[in-house]
From TrEMBL:
SUPFAM superfamilies documented for this protein: Metallo-dependent hydrolases
Name of the protein: Zn-dependent dipeptidase, dipeptidase homolog
The organism's taxonomic lineage, starting at the top: Bacteria, Pseudomonadati, Pseudomonadota, Alphaproteobacteria, Hyphomicrobiales
GO biological-process terms attached to the record: proteolysis
Organism: Bradyrhizobium erythrophlei
GO molecular function, one term: metallodipeptidase activity
Amino acid sequence: MRRWLSIGVALVAAVLFASAVRFFVVTPERIDRGQNKVQRVTVDITLAAQALQATLDVADMHADSLLWKRDLIARSDRGHIDLPRLIEGRYALQVFSSVTKSPEGQNYDANAGDTDTITNLAIIDLQPMRTWFSLLQRSLWHAEKLHNFADKSAGRLRVITTPVDIDRLLADRKNGMTVVGGMLSIEGLHDLEGKIDNLDILYAAGFRMAGLAHFFDNDVAGSMHGVAKGGLTPLGRQVVQRMEAMGMIVDLAHASHAAVADVLAMATRPVVSSHGGVQATCKVNRNLTDDEVRGVARTGGVIGVGFWQGAVCSLDPNNVARAIAHVRDLVGIDHVGLGSDFDGSTTTGFDASGIAAVTQALMSSGFSEDDIRKVMGGNVLRVLRAGLVAK
């Protein structure tokens, strides 16, 4: 009897173990597939657009790929980004954002900050336990992931932290080297956990850009999707000053109108809006008003236009070109670029390997070759280089 009981217990334990393994292996992939989709939009890429695309240095200011349990060095059939697809798309630089907290029922209108879905994801992904309870540690884990990907990329991925890094990256690409730069950003400075000195820790980990708020108001700034939607807090004003002094670029994406106005009134260096759209072509509350577009341009900054429904009201790359054309007509060609929001729980009409769809849309809209080069990467690379400081 004891023998049969032991066998039964062993079988139950084996089944439970197998179920647990299956859960922690399959569930992260299922979540990733469900959140980051491609609904292919058919675009005929002309020979002229193909030829131009083959010479571009593409730069994109926003992707959330580090949030997911995915090897970015290997080609994947899920999500929007991995190194092989970036190489196919002629990317010179991809900014990778650290998302550390996301409220339940997240929406564009009003979210409280008292719930969080990223904690569950951290546990399901079996991230280090330190990330389960600390937003700061989640960002440091994302930085560690990017550095590890670069280390095992055989020189094809580099972490960019200084102007010299950008210069070297572009020179090596010009000389025929296959290499992509990755820069670290933060989506909402709630990961400071209320302590301004944590900026130094994040900077040391490689972060060079940060959005003030994400989908809820925090102790730095109001969010466009928060409840109060206030401006910069006293801590927020100190944070902006510290960021400018240390060479960390201020990102206005998701910030409330009041917070955007506060930053633009005090900025002494170029600021960016890394991903989104403009209300003139897609009237969604998260998109920039014309006055805000003018304000970003006055700092010498750049606006990244996204590829998803909430940014341009369509998955059609022609809508991306339409938003870009509006910014160009309003403030000039030097202040607009790409901010895909790839892997940001978004659905897009193409992934990184299909970025030529945007090149084609710009060409079809009458943009000159020189202006297309600026939009597809030149403007972003120029502004990021100006915003960083030498070590």
